[in-house]
Design a protein that fits this description.
With 230 residues, the chain is an all-alpha fold. It folds into 2 domains: 48 residues, Orthogonal Bundle (Arc Repressor Mutant, subunit A); 151 residues, Tetracycline Repressor, domain 2. The protein has 10 helices and no strands. Helix 5 crosses helix 10 and helix 9 runs antiparallel to helix 10.
Length: 230
């Protein structure tokens, strides 16, 4: 019999390490975030009108050509920044409401988070910038206050809708109820910061007192007596 020939296979070739993901021009999400972070820094330091695209370039650490690949103008860059910050805040509030089905607890936590956003972050300075360009960019201001999924009032309204369906609240106009609670819980802080009347942040106990009062008023108006939903 002929000698059996054993075929020797070549050694397996290890796959080459995956190269970093490549994106088409203007589509790298990390680069876009880097530019927006730089714009945020520049606008907060200098204001929208005073900050130039050169300032954004310096703060972002990218070339001006790179910025224009992602954003056609400073106005467009500012609009994207506002939408991002609003969306992030709305997502945080949505997570808070998703963690609790108890209306009182959820409203309390929502109110505290909203108050702290007004008191502790640059939300109000950003809104001052927005108001400063309202005549030149009315569409942006309209979008900022419009009802949309990435908007805190819409997030709260969705929670109120769920509570109504579950029989925990009785509300005829959920959008109005959402507006009312936000005004009750944060209206004082908002006006004081917007108009520069809050020299120092209020004590946490005072913030909690105001939020608790807002929850009590809201539940007195819209809550169902405990016996009615047993």
């Amino acid at each position: 019999m002929p000698e059996k020939v054993t075929e020797t296979l070549p050694p397996a070739i290890e796959p080459a390490p995956c190269a970093a993901a490549r994106f088409a021009a203007g589509e790298d999400p990390a680069k876009r975030e880097q530019i927006l972070d730089g714009a945020r820094s520049a606008f907060m330091k200098m204001g929208f009108d005073a900050a130039s695209m050169n300032d954004v370039t310096r703060e972002a650490g990218v070339s001006k050509g790179t910025i224009y690949v992602y954003f056609a103008s400073k106005d467009e860059l500012f609009a994207a920044l506002i939408e991002r910050e609003k969306g992030r805040f709305a997502d945080a509030l949505r997570d808070i409401l998703a963690d609790s089905e108890d209306a009182r607890d959820a409203l309390r936590r929502f109110g505290l988070a909203f108050a702290r956003q007004i008191i502790d972050t640059d939300m109000i300075p950003a809104m001052r910038i927005l108001l400063g360009v309202i005549d030149r960019m009315p569409g942006l201001c309209k979008r900022f206050f419009a009802s949309a999924p990435a908007e805190p009032r819409t997030v709260l309204r969705s929670f109120i809708d769920r509570q109504v369906e579950a029989g925990m609240l009785r509300v005829e106009d959920p959008d109005l109820a959402a507006r009312q609670f936000i005004d009750l819980a944060t209206g004082t802080f908002f006006k004081q910061r917007l108009f520069g009347q809050m020299a120092t942040p209020p004590e946490q106990a005072e913030v909690e007192r105001i939020i608790e009062s807002a929850v009590n008023v809201f539940m007195a108006a819209y809550g169902r007596p405990a016996a009615s939903h047993r």
